[in-house]
Design brief:
Layout (H helix, E strand, L loop, with lengths): L4 H8 L5 H17 L4 H8 L3 H10 L5 H14 L3 H12 L4 H19 L2 H12 L4 E4 L4 H16 L2 E4 L4 H8 L7 E5 L6 H12 L3 E6 L12 E4 L12 H17 L1 H17 L6 H9 L1
Length: 294
């Protein structure tokens, strides 16, 4: 018997009634919410009866709704292995156009992020970061790339960033041990979650730092010690991690900080532009071509 819930759904999809198809779609897109709903509540949300939800559970091979609910909760805790991601992704896309499927899924994640993110936590995170003495940013594996992107711009603007982007526990804590209540700790992690991110955030929290979590769900382990929680939807069933929505969220954070500290940032970048010009950091080839055409 296939153990993965999403694979079970894909295998049985052709046999589903219209109501069961609505249940399947909701679970695939909102499994983290459905995992804690009763059968009656799930039926109410998708517009079917409680008995239809129970029959759906048995249709895909569970003995009843409690076992389906347990499977959803286990998905939240453990997410999917790389092999399971490959199975689910290929099953979902099938013969459909890959570009259309993947890009539209990313568009949907950004839409859900816009709808679900807390504006209060967003503004609170912005204020904490721009007023921090030091900004610690933790991101490893695939999250290290968006963490580095975020850190690059924050360091240009404020010059006080400490990057924690290695899987070496010793190196990370040698950088983190000076954290105080005047600092901010930003932890970035998506399925499968980094235990080191959780530990580092707890360490900073215990020392009074304002902790910001950038993750995909309120049941993410990063949430437990965070002062500001920023939810950006990530794909749970993709061969590669979809970090489009998290990157858009980080762009929004940077823009918000620029707006709040407009004069300071303008002064900083004015000095930077002068240094870049003096040191010939950027090629002027394109500009010279435009002049020649005129």
């Amino acid at each position: 018997m296939v153990s993965n819930l999403l694979v079970r759904i894909d295998m049985c999809r052709e046999k589903f009634s219209k109501g069961q198809r609505r249940i399947a779609n909701f679970i695939e897109e909102h499994y983290d919410e459905a995992a804690f709903m009763t059968a009656a509540k799930l039926g109410e949300i998708v517009g079917v009866s409680e008995s239809t939800v129970v029959r759906f559970a048995t249709e895909i091979g569970y003995s009843g709704y409690p076992n389906l609910q347990k499977a959803m909760q286990e998905m939240i805790r453990d997410k999917l292995t790389s092999i399971q991601r490959i199975e689910v992704t290929t099953g979902r896309i099938g013969d459909k156009d890959v570009i259309d499927s993947v890009l539209n899924q990313d568009i949907e994640k950004i839409k859900r992020t816009v709808e679900e993110i807390s504006r209060k936590d967003f503004n609170q995170a912005v204020d904490a970061i721009i007023n921090a003495e030091h900004i610690y940013i933790f991101g490893v594996k695939s999250a290290s790339y968006i963490a580095s992107f975020f850190g690059y711009y924050l360091d240009l603007m404020f010059g006080n960033v400490v990057m924690l982007n290695t899987t070496s526990k010793t190196t990370n804590y040698e950088k983190l041990f000076r954290v105080t209540d005047k600092d901010v700790m930003i932890g970035i992690s998506f399925p499968r979650y980094s235990t080191m991110a959780v530990d580092a955030m707890n360490f900073a929290h215990e020392r009074g730092a304002h902790v910001v979590a950038i993750t995909d769900s309120m049941v993410s382990p990063l949430v437990t010690c965070a002062d500001s929680i920023l939810i950006a939807r990530s794909d749970i069933a993709s061969i590669v991690d979809s970090l489009v929505a998290p990157l858009s969220l980080i762009n929004a954070l940077i823009v918000a900080m620029v707006i709040k500290r407009k004069d300071d940032v303008k002064e900083t970048f004015s000095k930077l532009e002068q240094v870049w010009l003096e040191q010939s950091i950027y090629s002027s080839h394109a500009l010279e071509e435009v002049k020649d055409e005129k």
